[in-house]
Write a structure and sequence with these properties.
This protein has five helices and ten strands. By secondary structure, the protein is of the alpha/beta class. The strands form two sheets. It has an eight-stranded mixed beta sheet, with helices on one face. A two-stranded parallel sheet has the order 4-8. The radius of gyration is 26 Å and the shape is elongated. The N terminus is likely disordered.
Amino acid sequence: MNPNRRLHFLTFWAATIFLLLFSIRPGLAYADTSLPIVDEQGIFSIEIYPLKHQLIVLKHGQKVKTYTVAVGNPSTPTPVGEYKINYKGKDWGPSFGPRWLGLNVPWGIYGIHGTNKPYSIGQHLSHGCIRMHNRDVMELFDMIPVGTIVTIYGHILGHPSHHPRNLAEGDVGGDVQLIQSRLKSAGYFHGDCDGKFRSSTTAALKKFQRDRGLPENGVVSLRMYREFGLVE
């Protein structure tokens, strides 16, 4: 047999045998999977009610613990929506207490943590994070796994009895994400609705304002919220 043909023949059969072996017994080809680091079963969940300053832990849907917390002030509100615990850390500094449970909020770093200002608990005094008494956050840290769903209740535009905040370049939040979504639906914004008010959002907003004969200031005021149909 020609040497080249013989080499080709042997290579073909070696490859065929390899594929047969590892398609029948894939366990030979792969190491054991690593242990999960998230709560796939969703045993626990957390609900946060900023107006009541409450954090409630549920296990299999049943309330097992209620904590009093501090939440964001009107200018830096706690983000409303459904998120996950994506990181757990210890001793980030006195302002964050002994424990940190991070949330996967797309427009910034938010989490549930302790505090060196216990007087703030039960008030709207944080920069958007959820503050707990240090003893409480240590208990929560040990109880809650990464991957736990956290639902924060409330209105994205703030308390219904108050006008929503004015928005401009540099602001972040769920309200910014909502404006981006409205601009995108109208064909003005083409980026990611990530809740970060950057120059691309400003440009889209100014074009929206220009097309409607409004002042091109790139600011979302009460009038603009009305133009978007978000308030009456």
